Amino acid sequence: GSNWSGIIDDRTSKNYMPLTGLKSALQRVNNLMPKGKFDLVLFDACQMTYLETLAVIGPEINYLLSSAFV
Predict the structure, then answer these.
(1) Where does residue 6 fall: left (phi above 0), alpha (psi -120 to 50 degrees), or beta otherwise?
(2) Which of 8, 14, 61, 63 is least enclosed, having the fewest CB within 10 Å?
(3) This prediction's pTM
(4) Which helix or strand (DSSP H or E) is residue 27 part of?
């Protein structure tokens, strides 16, 4: 898979947010939320949803819903 290099692309700068950047963003937002975690995160592309992704962001979310197909 290719999600190890980045998961969210910025087509104007041609850069990617790495998984650690996504985890950091989730942590910062979670600190502001009353329950402390996102209840649900949705990925709409199958390449976003690898076990490596869940291993990194899993502690910051309760549920992950993802697409099996692009």
Answers:
(1) left
(2) 14
(3) 0.75
(4) helix 19-30
Within its chain, how far is the Cα of 45 from the centroid? 11
* Residue pair 40/63 in contact by the 8 Å Cβ criterion: yes
Q: What are phi and psi of 27, to 5 degrees?
A: -60, -45
What does residue 17 show for φ and ψ, rounded to 5 degrees? -85, 120
Tell me the two tokens of residue 9: 């692309």
10-62 pLDDT per residue, tens = 788 878 888 888 899 999 999 998 888 888 988 877 777 788 888 889 999 99
